[in-house]
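Researcher: Let's do a round of design. I'm pasting the structure tokens now; please hold your answer until I've finished.
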């Protein structure tokens, strides 16, 4: 029997419907214990040409949230929420009949759509802070000077991304949601791991890769010209970030043992399922006073949502293939562990899509 995507979940429906507690919502500080070794290198020879190229590009591609974004553009969240082509409003793809949404008036439905897009952007903002912290860790832990140089530019990039989403949410949507518990758990795992390559793998390949796919979809379809402008700037940065992860890990993973490779494969699979399960709007249903468990079930089973969650892996799968993790462990024509698992998730159709190492050059266009 072929395993269906919706049968593979990172927990029970009750667990997936979980949201942060009221006490956690009131907390401004979230602390994760991390025990990492700080690595100095006294070898300043610039020997990794592709990383040097990324670093040079990063230095000339810095942009300013205050002056390079046209904040005078008016944003009407309610109007945008009514646009059926708006990818941030995932409620537009849901059937209302026979669901907890069927008794909502049209105005309440569109309010829910506006809240949904604020929720998506809030999760982007929280994820960008996770990237900020992880990249700062990479500066401390990676053993190559070229990687330290580039990672330092990414720290500034990520700070800028947090700033731009925070300002958009505050000034244009006037609504911000707390971090989703599934995203928070994944960020906690990545930050707490003491191995520098796992920070790379979790953030640069998995989380940033999924974000890049979401940003690309958002850029193509959003009806908001201000958000389109912001997304174009962010995408150019993110493409470099993922390429940085691919270039660095491809070298590092050439020397891993079979057991070490398998551990990283398992991490990628578990992270993939967690990230897919985060896009269910749990905090929105709670905010609206709707039954969270029932609404989460609707989101899990909605055909368009199932397909959207698959597309989010269009950047992750080809990058993992380039790293050798997708097919590691294959023997005599039998698929390796991760290939088999990704097949069960229904995302192998993306394996021959362009990897980000080849793609980022095209992304380095002037934002418009």
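Researcher: That's everything. Go ahead.
Model: Designed sequence:
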């Amino acid at each position: 029997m072929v395993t269906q995507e919706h049968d593979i979940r990172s927990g029970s429906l009750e667990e997936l419907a979980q949201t942060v507690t009221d006490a956690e919502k009131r907390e401004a500080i979230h602390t994760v214990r991390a025990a990492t070794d700080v690595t100095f290198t006294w070898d300043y020879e610039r020997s990794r040409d592709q990383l040097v190229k990324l670093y040079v590009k990063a230095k000339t591609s810095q942009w300013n949230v205050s002056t390079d974004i046209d904040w005078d553009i008016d944003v009407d969240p309610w109007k945008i929420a009514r646009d059926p082509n708006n990818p941030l409003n995932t409620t537009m793809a849901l059937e209302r009949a026979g669901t907890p949404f069927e008794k909502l008036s049209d105005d309440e439905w569109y309010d829910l759509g506006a809240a949904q897009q604020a929720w998506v952007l809030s999760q982007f903002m929280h994820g960008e802070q996770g990237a900020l912290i992880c990249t700062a860790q990479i500066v401390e832990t990676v053993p190559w000077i070229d990687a330290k140089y580039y990672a330092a530019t990414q720290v500034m990039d990520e700070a800028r991304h947090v700033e731009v989403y925070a300002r958009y949410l505050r000034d244009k949507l006037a609504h911000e949601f707390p971090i989703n518990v599934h995203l928070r758990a994944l960020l906690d795992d990545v930050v707490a791991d003491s191995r520098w390559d796992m920070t790379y793998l979790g953030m640069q390949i998995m989380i940033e890769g999924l974000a890049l796919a979401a940003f690309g979809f958002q850029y193509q379809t959003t009806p908001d010209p201000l958000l389109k402008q912001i997304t174009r700037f962010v995408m150019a940065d993110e493409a470099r970030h993922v390429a940085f992860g691919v270039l660095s890990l491809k070298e590092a993973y050439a020397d891993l043992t079979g057991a070490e490779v398998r551990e990283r494969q398992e991490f990628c699979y578990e992270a993939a399922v967690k990230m897919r399960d985060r896009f269910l709007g749990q905090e929105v249903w709670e905010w609206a006073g709707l039954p969270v468990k029932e609404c989460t079930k609707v989101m899990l089973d909605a055909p368009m949502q199932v397909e959207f969650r698959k597309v989010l892996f269009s950047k992750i799968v080809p990058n993992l293939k380039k790293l050798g993790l997708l097919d590691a462990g294959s023997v005599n024509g039998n698929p390796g562990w991760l290939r088999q698992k990704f097949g069960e998730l229904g995302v192998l159709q993306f394996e021959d899509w362009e990897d980000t190492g080849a793609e980022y050059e095209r992304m380095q266009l002037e934002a418009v």
